[in-house]
Amino acid sequence: MKKVTLIFIATFGGMISAQTISPHVISSAGSDFQNTKLQVDWTIGEVLIHTIEHNIIQITQGFHQPYLTITNTTALPEDIGQIHTFPNPVDSYLEVQIQLNGMHYIEMHFFDAAGKLYWTKSVEDSNLYTSLSTSSLASNAYFLRVKIDNLFSQTVQIQKLH
Predict the structure, then answer these.
(1) Looking at the DSSP assignment, which residues form a beta bridge with residue 130?
(2) Which of 14, 128, 133, 161 has CA 20 to 30 A from 140's CA?
């Protein structure tokens, strides 16, 4: 019995591992494609996806979903300042205007629903006006996360058209 156990451990010991939780899809085919006008993710084998939409909330049931985490979408406290983004939806350029009461460390990240980072900027300032080119991005939902002093955070959903 000891020999059998020893042979089993020697043969299969390297293949034994603990269970992990991570998003994987087992299907016959699938891929993603993105150009300046379109972004498509697809998987063969997913029979039905149910989507519920209400105002600005969308819930999709199914296993083929992007990674999306939004921790805070509330506005900054008025005693800190204001963040303005325009136009939204955007076509070619997104304008970002940040007006703060005093000098603060500002960190901005622009990313898509899958978490792919397209643009980032960090400065110490009280008033910031910047323009971000979106002409090369596909029509999709994007997010601009603005952090102030690593204490306050505001995430704005940006819809890219055309």
Answers:
(1) 96
(2) 128
The pLDDT score that the predictor gives to residue 7 is: 65
CB atoms within 10 A of CB 77: 10
Query: d(Cα 59, Cα 53) in Å, to the nearest integer?
Result: 6
* Domain boundaries, position 45: 29-61
- DSSP structural state of residue 28: S
CB atoms within 10 A of CB 95: 14
Per-residue model confidence as pLDDT tens digits over 28-80: 666 777 777 666 666 666 555 666 676 666 666 665 555 555 444 567 788 88
- What's the mean per-residue pLDDT of the chain? 77
Residues 86 and 51 in one domain: no
Q: Would 74 be classed as within a structural domain?
A: no
As beta bridge partners, residue 119 has 110
Query: Which residue bears the tokens 């325009």?
Result: 86
Whether 120 is covered by a domain: the verdict is: yes
Q: Please say whether the beta carbons of 70 and 109 come within 8 A.
A: no
User: Do 92 and 150 have their domain in common?
Assistant: yes
pLDDT tens, position by position, 101-121:
999 999 999 998 888 899 999
Is residue 108 included in any domain, yes or no? Answer: yes
